[in-house]
Amino acid sequence: MARLRLHHHVVAVHHPAALPEADVQQIFLVFFVTFTMAAVALIHTGVVERIKPVPLFVMSFVVGAVLSPLVGYLCSGSLSPLTLRGTHDFDGAFPLYITAGTFVLVLAWRAGPRLGAFLPHHSGAKPVSHNAAFVGIGVLLILVALPFVTLGSGYMVPGTGFFGISYTESGIGLVVVNLVAALLGGAVTGLLLAYRRRDATSALLGPIADVVMAGTLLDIGNAWECLLVGALGPVVALGTGTLLRKARVDDPKVVPLALGPGAVGAVLTGFLK
């Protein structure tokens, strides 16, 4: 028996006839499987040069079979334990960004830095710099997919409206406008950082950091809130990367882009809403 809370009322659902298209909500199984695959892909990206295949396979199984479903259970749905205690998620900030970012942080710390990452190595080995063209293509693909992923993070209830993952009252137009506002805020900040630091990667990754930053706010915030919170995303990502370098933790990608903005954005949403 599924239980849904709509407009502060708890409704018991025994059959799709009690709630039209209730059986369609099973599509979220595929949605969470996709989130798990994305989380494992981020973990792989964070330590791809420092880990052997077998440990990675084992960790991927643990993340997919235990950690990701557990976080989804705790954070998703109107009756999930953390939602009932005030935690709010929408665009997968907790099961994807924060979970993968935390895992990569610990993994990068335990695996140690790549040769030449912080100090010159006697062999002359050093990390290869990012390919800006590939980064740009990847960012473009993510931006194309974002509207679909964002709208897929909510529920369409026939005759009632659009609701967030925890059945917060929202709307398709509201979510799309908030997403675009967050993208614009992060893009502007990313361009400013790129100009200031003479680093084109900051401009490319600015829109990604802002969406992660505003991920928990997209269904309940307004455009100005998402614009300002999104604009902070690249700054938080840059600050997270700086802290990692000072701590000699070698991860220039996943933790700065996922864990830092994801965690700070979730806390900001708590204060704003």
What does this structure look like?
With 273 residues, the chain is mostly helical. The chain has a single domain (27-272), classed as Ammonium transporter AmtB like domains (Ammonium transporter fold, Orthogonal Bundle). It contains nine helices and five strands, in the order E-E-H-H-H-H-H-E-E-E-H-H-H-H. It has helices at residues 27-47, 53-75, 81-84, 93-111, 132-151, 172-197, 200-213, 223-246, 254-272, and strands at 2-6, 9-13, 155-157, 161-163, 169-170. It has a three-stranded antiparallel β-sheet. Strand 4 and strand 5 form a beta hairpin. Helix 4 (93-111) packs across helix 9, helix 7 (200-213) packs across helix 8 (223-246) and helix 8 crosses helix 9. The longest helix is centred in the last third of the chain and has 26 residues, at 172-197. It is globular, with a radius of gyration of 20 Å. The protein starts with a strand and ends with a helix. The model is unreliable at 1-14 (pLDDT under 50).
Provide key terms for this protein.
3-stranded antiparallel sheet, 273 residues, two-stranded antiparallel ribbon, globular, disordered N terminus
What is the CATH homologous superfamily assignment? Ammonium transporter AmtB like domains
Q: Portion of residues in helices?
A: 55-70%
Low-confidence stretches: 1-14
Main beta-sheet strand count, sense and barrel state? 3 strands, antiparallel
Strands of the largest sheet, in order across it? 3-4-5
Give the overall shape.
globular
CATH class: Mainly Alpha
Q: How many DSSP helices? A: 9
CATH architect. name: Orthogonal Bundle
- How many beta-strand segments? 5
Fold-level CATH name: Ammonium transporter fold
Number of domains: 1
